[in-house]
Fold:
Amino acid sequence: MSRRQIFDDMDFMKSEAGFDAPIESLKDGRKVFYRYSDPEFTILKKPLNPAEMASLQEALEALSRMNNIPGFDWVNSLQTKLQSGLNQEKQNQQIISFEENEFLKGVEFLNPLYQSILNEQCLDIHYQGFNSPKKNVFTVSPYYLKQYNNRWFLFGHNHKEEKIQNLALDRIQEIQPSKNVYEPCEIDFDEYFEDIIGVTNNQEEQLTKIVIELSNNIIPYIQSKPIHGSQNIKGNLLKLELKLNYELESVILSFGENMKVLEPKKLKEIIKNRLQEVNKNY
Structure:
């Protein structure tokens, strides 16, 4: 990049059409240094300029045409979220919020991982799980990103274990390109998640028929917000067919006394033991 180009870029950054950046110069003998006069300034927090606003409005209009196309129902929530951000530029009062964890760790890896999936780049991922005393390095061919319960998870092929592994982004410490050859994905992730709640899919676990007794006051809630696509409610009995995993247990426990597991016995004992452990704390 030429010296002239650098100065042209700084002039643009200082302009109203750019970012109104508070750039100042400092002389030290024959040397000149440039910096922000406001140390807290960042272009990432700068409001959108009129041209950017107009471009986004055009994009929203294009998205609105897709609302009624089968398979594109997700566009509606995306459109609402984008429109909310644009309206926030025009008014001080916030009228809608979305469920996000602003303190969530690991979101800085989201875009690099997404790009690695697109480019089929094998990765060495430095990772430390909650229950692991030390950091591990996993060589992974990344395939899929999924958000569950306000956390992001990466799914990929673990080259050492030769199986699918899921890694929570908030436990990743570092990612580096790997010299290993990328293992192509042969998994249909719609099918992969079809028989589970959450993200834990034990390939050796079999589908299980589950029967849960519901209290009358939560039946309308479960009907309007199904726990799983396989659910069937008759009277006050909730029937499910899926794999047992930790996320299923957590959902059941979250309803407290309003849910009682009747079948299978294995799940009933798991819930009973976890409740007994909870009671020991009180």
Q: What stands out?
A: The radius of gyration is 25 Å.
